[in-house]
Every structure is written in structure tokens, then in C-alpha cells.
Specification:
CATH architecture of one domain: 3-Layer(aba) Sandwich
Strand order of the largest sheet: 1-4-5-6-7-8-11
Radius of gyration: 26 Å
Largest sheet: 7 strands, parallel
Number of helices: 22
Distance between the termini: 60 Å
Strand content: 15-25%
CATH superfamily of one domain: Glycoside hydrolase family 3 C-terminal domain
CATH class of one domain: Alpha Beta
Length: 792
């Protein structure tokens, strides 16, 4: 008789119960962890017998085959199949494993399409485009058998000192929610049997740490925690069925998230209605005793984390391996292990792994970096280019005879990548771990075998394997084949060497136009100037790049500054002196072609800022939706030494055409019925273009201090020259809800101001005041209805 758990026609709940009843305690614990690929490899070769010994009790996941090796897609898929075969055919119960990987700006795997980094995708404000990018990531992941993706990053980013801002979708809960939800829908699909589990990270408040320091403590009030930082997660859960959550490394008001039942169970599962699996950020369980010091040892760390609701320890069973002994000693109840194991097993059944554990490895390469995917990568990069300033030099006049392309970012494919792009991310392996990294990852005690960490070696070595990358120099040479293009780097992306600046100045002085490409190097190793664990106190350009820009501008040659960076730079000199200024946020493999498309006018720029650019780091935090009184220093308004205003506010971006907004048409609602707002938008210029129409709301009087204005809806709309499109927003009253004095989620009646325009502080915004009728209405975060948008 076939066991119920092997019956594909049985209900998943019945299959889980049957399998769980067959499992030993050790087999259950194995499902709550992972192994590094290196654990099943000997002498740089997969060893089936060794793997069978290591995996005798089964395993929940295998950690990052693609993101820790240099294997091509077909090789990666074959290896995954080999490991899967051990688990399916040579363990007692035949429970398949899940391979987890990364996918912030494309699948982090050799040969996968390199899209813009997360913040660069957010700069498109294009939800449909995000879904298309996610579909490519899903196709490539499933081709190699990776069914769990440690993305998207749903952290709301409000401190530009933090190195990981580039991985996020910016400062607005609404923008993060819309882009993140589109990403999850594209990867998970409506049926996980065809999709990839997405992991929303990092729950919760990770991007608002003390001093912008990575993993530092967080101090956020309960209201802010829910309304701002939890909202993107809540949206992805209720609208897209987000199947996995990763904890934040940080503590919140002294409580480490990895050990917080209040956050991982009461808030996440209770208030937000989450039903999936909670996975640990790498080494987060270990950190309870070697970092936060809330546990004496690895066993106590495991007890704290599992009791809080953390289901799966990643990247390996460093602490959870102590749980069987803890159960036998009566320190933790086995029912807690059963609950987590049941969630893990249910997800494996949903993925269809018991019926289809293997992939067609020989077919995998066919879906990696295809011409169609590269076209999408170029479109995504171009749609995310933000034109911040233009004094008439752009688009470039095709009749110019000589163009000087200057700067460290002008012809270096590595500088088009973010910290979670392949191979930038893998520098931590193929360049060799620094002492600091080794101490942080490998020198943390006997609880972790440092040899289990990925190392460069033999055929598995990742090396600097790039897909073909188009740099700005290459893109401009393709776009302007009949023009003379001179390239001079001028300086490095970091360091104090100014010896090359003179040659760059000479080239600029002899040119009709100078394009200066500058920015920061994103990555995880010590020479990176932005990225994970690469935080900063200075938001200027690294090294001597500002000197380079200033000296080029001083030649008097019309100068275009192109910032290619994941850092939010203050851009003081560049903003005030350059003839044109653009920001391309780590645009990936087609970045240079996309930048060239914008520079020559092949693409009309429509990227918009997903973050506010301050004038000075001393203004941080500065964002568009500060609560009342947060936008000024009372009672004179400004600081003693500078303005309190941003250099460029959230949502800002220019175009080569012009758009005019008509008067708002409003159909008022109530605290229980929707409000409808329509606005005609006309392209009054001579070029076709996209406009990002943004809707902001202000609750004029409330029982607690509310934001001055907050984004509650948007649409990227293509409008041909001379034509008009009418954009209609339908605002459900739950979208206006907030946590009142008693922390209930309520929408109060009263006066609201709605503003529609081209940025958060567009001086030409159209606005209307609406009296919301009715009584106080109560909602919860599981049933908030997103603003819907129609374009006619």
C-alpha cells in the first residue's frame, strides 16, 4: 500500500500529517536546515557515497549552488539532480530538498541575465516591467532546479548611509509594496507547482539602523513599525501570497528579531496573516549568542529562534542540530518542531517536488541570457535612468564631431553591477575572504564548521565570469558610429591618485561635449564603497571623482555627468555646475546601451527617484513622508548652516518633453466607501514620452500626528506627443487607515487633501480637498485594499 504522503491526489494536509508521523526527531530537524554545496563535495568532485552519508537523515535545503560556484546552467542543474537523487533514492523517506538562491537584480548564477539592481528597477516605477523581469528570473531558476529565492528585499530605505539601500525599492512603503508584490507574483505565479518560493526580507526595520550601520540596533515605535516598515510585507502577503519571510539581523528596542515571538509570530502570523515559512538570514541564529548575547550557546540560540517562530536555519544546521538533545532534556517541546517541519513539508508538496524532483539539465542553457532577455534588460535599464538636470545639452546633437567619455565608470563592466549581481557578489569567494570576513563568518566558534563555507577551488571556482556587458563607451560608440569618441578614465573609482585627471581635462577641452561617468563600486569586499556591510558617513563621490568632475566642468565644454551608483550621493558640485545630470542605478549588463539610448534621445527619460537626495548627510533622515513637524527646524525653518530642503525630492525626474496636468475630478467617498480621483495628463511637447503620475494624500486632522504627505498610488503612462490620457485612481478607505491612540487600525472621517503631480513636491501639483464622511471605521492589515489605477 502506497503511503498517503506519496499520493499526489491526497490533500496536502493529509500528506503532511502522514509523513510527519513517519519521521524521527533527527529527520524532522534535518528539514529545518540546509547544507552548503561544499558539504557534499570531496576533492572538487561530487561524491555520491559521501553525500549519502552526510544526508542520511535528509535535508531541508541546499545552499546556493549557483551563487557560490562558477558552474554553467546545465552543470548546475546536473549537480542539483545528483544531490536530489541521493535524497529521493537513498534516504529512508525519500524527501526531496529545495535549492535556494538569490535574485535581487536577476538570478545570481553564472550566465544569467543581469538586470538593474533592485533600486534601479524601482526607479522605473513600472509594475508591469517588474513582473516581466521576475518572469525571466523564474524561468532561469526553475530551469536549474532552484525553487526558493531569497528575494525580494522589502526593506523601506530611509538612511542613505546604509550600504544596502541599492537592494531595496526605496523610501516609500507604497512603491516598495507595488514593486515587491509584482516581483512575487512573477516568480511564485498562481500555483507554486510552476513557480519559485519568494522570500521577503528583512523582517523588520532592518534598513533604519543606528547610524546607517549594517545589522546595528533599530529603534522604531510600534505605529511606525506597522504603517511603514511592515506594510510592503503585508501587501506581498495579502495580494501575492508571499510564501517565505527572512528575519532581520537587527534587534528592535533590544529584542533580536530572530528570537522575537512578538514579531515573527504575533505580528507576522497574527496581524499580517502570514502562513508560509520563516527562514533565518545567514548565521542569524548563531548571532543570538555571539552577537546579541541573549543566549549562552548554540543550543539556547536554537531554542530561542524556533520558539519565536523561525522555521529554517540558514545557511546550515549550526544551531538547530542541538534541538534533539534539547527535546530529550525537556528544554523545548517537540510540538514546536512539528509545527515548523509541517510548514516546510507543506511547501515542498506545493512545489510538486515529490512528483517532479528533477529538471531537464541539458535544456537549462537555452533559457539563459537569450536575445529577448537582453532586450528586456536594456529596456529595464533605460526606463530607470533618471534625468535630474538638463540645461539644453541633452539629447546629444548627432552632428557633434567629438565626444569625450571620461570617468572610471565609463568602460568598466564591473562598475555596472550591484552587490547581489553575479559575479560582483562572488568576489568574496574568488578574490579570497579577507581577515575581517573570515573572522565574521568562520571565526565564530565551534558551532560552525568554517570548512563548510564556499571557497574557490577547481571546477567549482566562481571566478569573474561576466555575461557580455555593454559599457557607456560601448553604448555610445554603437549609438554614434560616425562620431569621434575619445575615452579617458581620468581616475579610479576610489583612492587619491590624481595623475590621470590632466589627460581627462585635455580630452574634455578638445571635445564638443564631455560625458563624465562616475559613481561607487558596489560589492561585499573591502575595496567596495557601497553594498552589504559597506556603509558610509560621506555621501559624496568616492576618491577624487568630484575633483575630476569639477575640473572637466571648468574647461567650459558642455558637460553631462552620469552617476552610475547604488549610493544616494548628495551631488552638490555636480548639481550646481554640470549642464546635465543623470543617475543610472547599477543598470546591469545592458546598462551602457541604455544610458546611450537616453543620451542620444532614442529613449525619452522617465525614471523617477525612488529615494530623496539630500543636500548633505547631516539632513539624514530626510524623506517625502515625514510626520508633521518633521520637515523643518522650528522656528526659523532651516538649519543654521543650510536649507532643510532636499536637493531632489522623492519621485522627481525630468523628460525631453513636457506634460500638463488638468483639473482633478473627484467623487468623494466615506470611511467605508471608495473615493475616485481623475486627472487628464497631456503631452504638450514634441516627443512621445512616459509620465509617472503620482498620487499623494494628507490627512489634515487626525488623533495622532500623520505624514505631511504620503504616496498612495501611481501609474507610469505612455503619452504620444500632443495627446492626452486620463488617469483615474480609486482609493479604498482602508488605504487611508492608520493606527490610532489605542493602536487599532482606523480610518477617521474628516478633511483629506489629495495631490496629483510629477513628484512628491511638484510645485505644479493639482490638489483637491475631500471631506470623508461617515463614522470611524476599523480595518486590519490583512484586508487593506491597494489603490487601483485605470488609464484611458
Amino acid at each position: 500500500m502506497t503511503e498517503v504522503y506519496r499520493d499526489p491526489h491526497a490533500a496536502i494536509g493529509d500528506r503532511v500529517a502522514d509523513l510527519l508521523g513517519c519521521m524521527t526527531l533527527e529527520e524532522k530537524i534535518a528539514q529545518l536546515g540546509a547544507v552548503w554545496l561544499t558539504a557534499v563535495v570531496r576533492d572538487e568532485v561530487f561524491d555520491a557515497d559521501h553525500a549519502a552519508e552526510v544526508l542520511a537523515n535528509g535535508i531541508g535545503q541546499v545552499t546556493r549552488i549557483g551563487a557560490s560556484t562558477g558552474l554553467l546552467a546545465n552543470e548546475s542543474a546536473h549537480l542539483g539532480n545528483s544531490i536530489q537523487q541521493i535524497l529521493v533514492e537513498r534516504t529512508r523517506l525519500g524527501i526531496p530538498m529545495v535549492i535556494h538562491e538569490e535574485g535581487v537584480g536577476g538570478f545570481l548564477h553564472r550566465g544569467a541575465t543581469t538586470f538593474p539592481q533592485g533600486l534601479g528597477l524601482a526607479a522605473t516605477w513600472n509594475v508591469e516591467l517588474m513582473a516581466e523581469v521576475a518572469e525571466v528570473i523564474r524561468t532561469q531558476m526553475t530551469a536549474v532546479g532552484a525553487r526558493h529565492n531569497l528575494s525580494p528585499v522589502l526593506d523601506v530605505a530611509r538612511d542613505p548611509r546604509w550600504g544596502r539601500v541599492e537592494e531595496t525599492y526605496g523610501e516609500s512603503p507604497e512603491l516598495c509594496a507595488r514593486m515587491g508584490t509584482a516581483y512575487v507574483r512573477g516568480l511564485q505565479t498562481d500555483n507554486l507547482a510552476n513557480g519559485v518560493v519568494c522570500t521577503g526580507k528583512h523582517f523588520l526595520g532592518y534598513g533604519y539602523s543606528l547610524g546607517g550601520r549594517n545589522q546595528a540596533p533599530v529603534h522604531i515605535g510600534e505605529r511606525e513599525l506597522r504603517e511603514v516598515y511592515a506594510e510592503p510585507f503585508a501587501a506581498a502577503i495579502r495580494e501575492a501570497g508571499l510564501a517565505s519571510i527572512m528575519n532581520s539581523y537587527s534587534s528592535i528596542d533590544g529584542e533580536p528579531v530572530a528570537a522575537s515571538k512578538r514579531l515573527l509570530t504575533d505580528l507576522l502570523r497574527g496581524e499580517l496573516g502570514f502562513e508560509g515559512t520563516v527562514v533565518a538570514d545567514y548565521f542569524a541564529v548563531l548571532q543570538l549568542h555571539f552577537n546579541h548575547m541573549t543566549a549562552h550557546d548554540a543550543a539556547e540560540s536554537a531554542i530561542q529562534a524556533l520558539s519565536a517562530g523561525l522555521d529554517i536555519e540558514l545557511p546550515a544546521l549550526d544551531c538547530y542540530k542541538h534541538l534533539p538533545e534539547a527535546v530529550r532534556e525537556g528544554r523545548i517541546d517537540e510540538t514546536l518542531i512539528d509545527e515548523s517541519c509541517a510548514r516546510v513539508l507543506a511547501q515542498k508538496f506545493q512545489l510538486g517536488l515529490f512528483e517532479n524532483p528533477y529538471v531537464d539539465a541539458d535544456a537549462a542553457l537555452a533559457v539563459f541570457d537569450t536575445p529577448e532577455q537582453r532586450v528586456l534588460a536594456r529596456r529595464a535599464a533605460a526606463e530607470g535612468v533618471i534625468l535630474l538636470k538638463n540645461e539644453g545639452v541633452l539629447p546629444l546633437d548627432p552632428s557633434i564631431s567629438r565626444l569625450a567619455v571620461i570617468g572610471p565608470h565609463a568602460d568598466d563592466p564591473r562598475l555596472l553591477q550591484g552587490d547581489y549581481h553575479y559575479p560582483a557578489h562572488l568576489e568574496i569567494i574568488y578574490q579570497g575572504r579577507t581577515e575581517a570576513v573570515t573572522e565574521a563568518l568562520g571565526g565564530i566558534g565551534a558551532d560552525m564548521d568554517a570548512d563548510q563555507l564556499p571557497e574557490a577551488g577547481g571546477r567549482f571556482s566562481p571566478g569573474p565570469h561576466f555575461t557580455p556587458h555593454v559599457t557607456p563607451v560601448g553604448g555610445l560608440r554603437d549609438a554614434l558610429p560616425h562620431n569621434e569618441i575619445v575615452h579617458v578614465p581620468g581616475c579610479a573609482d576610489a583612492g587619491r591618485d590624481i595623475s590621470g585627471i590632466a589627460a581627462a581635462v585635455e580630452a574634455a577641452a578638445a571635445a564638443d561635449v564631455a560625458v563624465v561617468c562616475v559613481g561607487a563600486r558596489s560589492g561585499l569586499v573591502a575595496d567596495s564603497t557601497v553594498g552589504e556591510a559597506r556603509d558610509a558617513t560621506d555621501l559624496g563621490l568616492p576618491g577624487v571623482q568630484s575633483q575630476l568632475v569639477a575640473k572637466v566642468i571648468a574647461t567650459g565644454t558642455p558637460t553631462v555627468v552620469v552617476v552610475i551608483s547604488g549610493r544616494v550621493h548628495t551631488l552638490e558640485e555636480e548639481s550646481e555646475a554640470a549642464d546635465a545630470l543623470l543617475w543610472s542605478i547599477l543598470p546591469g549588463e545592458e546598462g551602457g546601451g541604455a544610458i546611450a539610448d537616453v543620451l542620444v534621445g532614442e529613449v525619452n527619460p522617465a525614471g523617477r527617484l525612488p529615494v530623496t537626495i539630500p543636500r548633505h548627510v547631516g539632513q539624514v533622515p530626510l524623506h517625502h513622508d515625514m510626520r508633521r513637524r518633521g520637515d523643518r527646524s522650528e522656528f526659523y525653518g532651516d538649519y543654521v548652516d543650510r536649507s532643510t530642503q532636499a536637493r531632489y525630492w522623492f519621485g522627481y525626474g525630468l523628460s525631453y518633453t513636457s506634460f500638463e496636468y488638468g483639473e482633478l475630478t473627484v467623487a468623494p467617498g466615506s470611511t467605508t466607501s471608495a473615493t475616485e480621483i481623475s486627472v487628464p495628463v497631456t503631452n504638450s511637447g514634441q516627443r512621445d514620452g512616459d509620465e509617472v503620475v503620482q498620487l499623494y494624500a494628507t490627512d489634515e486632522v487626525a488623533c495622532v500626528a500623520r505624514p505631511i504627505r504620503e504616496l498612495i498610488g501611481f501609474a507610469r503612462v505612455s503619452i504620444p506627443a500632443g495627446q492626452t490620457r486620463t488617469v483615474t485612481f480609486t482609493i479604498h478607505p482602508s488605504r487611508l487607515a492608520f493606527h490610532g491612540l489605542d493602536m487599532e487600525l482606523i480610518t477617521e472621517p474628516g478633511l483629506f487633501t489629495f495631490r496629483v503631480g510629477a513628484s512628491s513636491f511638484d510645485p505644479d501639483m493639482r490638489e483637491a480637498q475631500v471631506e470623508l464622511a461617515g463614522e470611524v471605521a476599523r480595518y486590519d492589515r490583512r484586508t487593506i485594499v491597494a489603490t487601483s489605477v485605470e488609464v484611458a
